[in-house]
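# step 3/5: fold
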Amino acid sequence: MRITSGQAPAALPGDLDLADPHYFGTGDPHPVWTHLRGADPVHRQCPMAGRPEFWAVTRHADVSRVLSRHEEFTAARGNILTTLGHEDIAGGQMIAVTDPPRHRRLKDPLTPHLSSQAVRAFEPALRDLARRLLAVGATTETWDFAAQAMYYPIAIAGLLLGIPESGWEHLKHYTYAAVAESDPDYAPADAGTASVLSRAHSEIFLYFAAEVAKPGREQADDLIGSLLRAAPDGVPLTRQEVILNAYSLLIGATVTTSHAASAGLLALLENPAEYTHWMTTGDTEAAVEEILRWSSPANHALRHTVAEVRLGDTVLGAGAPVTAWIGSANRDERVFADPFRFRVNRFPNRHIAFGVGAHRCVGANLARLALTVLFEELARAFEKIEPAREPRHLHSTFIAGIKSLPVRTVLRAQAADLRGMSPLGGTAEGAQ
């Protein structure tokens, strides 16, 4: 998804389809969102391409309300546009599509592993993974940062879920297919999106089914072990519930880290004054917050109204599907001064890239640390980074992602030890 100045058009295009993944892969929705925030903040998206109508919410306050008020807007009927029009079979079983109070009971076994204090224990491993991500740039001058970055969240999920490195390549492919089932890199020309999505889900579920079936797996000190030991409401989770929630954690890791990293690097390269400011001050934590706002990798979330509700000046009937556009909320002029300016020291920065309320990303602390470590290592590794070719964007309504970001780099002398490291994935994928 491209990011421009966000200058609002005088009128919306007549064929606007906010459920079309190719629109986000080849176009730029920000001008449309700017128009909607000002003129039509609760917008009715007409039925198109056989999909039912839905409502699109674009202002920060309204998005925050839709995401946080589960008593008004339920996640249990599906949380992304690909589920629109049919019930999500994982509703009530998977954290992402379960409302409180059961949502909290499913989430509680995971939070001790993902607290801000607990994730600090992962920092040495994260630094090793970040250095392996950058190792391609130590052996070739021109390489694809985004292609390498796609392994980073899979490797991090491996730390959390106990996934061995031998499984990374397999899970990487099908995880990205699951969130971008219409992207031409994941959907063959002769395959429908439903079959791509079904195959991706099947492969991931089969992988985790084999994993949870291993003898003694419930004793492991990782998130799968915690799920196998969990007993919300005094009843142990079924194997299906464990598999569904392992899947949800894998998708959650993929949603944020790699795409925020690629979009963040592109923003720094396109704003050299901000790049220089970041390198001079070394305040990577603040820069990461702006990268999260700027990239907003989790592009939208779907909810359904529980009963008739008034949202702004619009009354929505019971059962109405509502999309909360996080990417738009993080450019809301009512909240962010000069929202289309990338500023590494932005303060305050009330972005909601991780969501809000009960469904706020359980892995937010780890994602922040992973991004901070990656950009610290990036600054240490290269004295020069510049774009080599135009980026290519992911075709997805769910993920605002970059799937290719070719760069040219010059290695710092003190980073020569990167040459001896094996790249993530075991190959120099993306080297040009």
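# step 4/5: annotate
Residues 109 and 380 are 37 Å apart (CA to CA).
# step 5/5: archive (pending)
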